[in-house]
Design goal:
Distance between the termini: 44 Å
Keywords: DNA-binding, Repressor, Transcription, Transcription regulation
Largest sheet: none
Order of helices and strands: HHHHHHHHH
Helix content: 55-70%
InterPro entries: BetI_C, Homeodomain-like_sf, HTH-type_TetR-like_transc_reg, HTH_TetR, Tet_transcr_reg_TetR-rel_C_sf
Protein name: TetR family transcriptional regulator
Shape: elongated
Organism: Streptomyces wadayamensis
Length: 188
Amino acid sequence: MSRGGRNEDRRGEILRAALEVISERGYRAASLAAVAERVGLTQQGLLHHFPTKEALLVGVLEARDQWDATPRESWRLDLLAALVDYNATRPAIVRTFSALLGESVTGDHPARAYFSGRYAVVRADMAAILRTAYGERLPGGLTPEQAAPLLVAVMDGLQYQWLLDPEAVDMTAAFRDFLVLLGKEPPS
């Protein structure tokens, strides 16, 4: 294997370890030393791959997006339901994403710009999905652009409720109920 390939493999190991540590402790309490220890590196060795904690955080967020990458033009309402199903099988990743999202609302958080940009894209994608499913007006009269932030809020809000009490909140069933509430079954 080439040096570049080994470097990329090592970066992937570091990113997965960082995801675990952040999931367990939150970003602020996660340390570079804890991540380095998980992958059998010194902190200095970790800094060779990620020069700052902020660079590591951005790497984790970008890697998560790559792990979940689906061509944007292929999204439909039924695929959103499948995404919710999929997320229910990955509580550690959902927990990490949710913790980082919650922490990022502070003005000085290094992931604030990432999440702000990400949500702008997600809202536009959701509006496109809703337009494809319902046209220019949803059954209640809202435009896809008006309903898109509500759809995102339902998805993220269900994740928080599920993480807090998975026995009481069936995230996948609740999301399907929400789709019914929109006025029609999700397309199959």
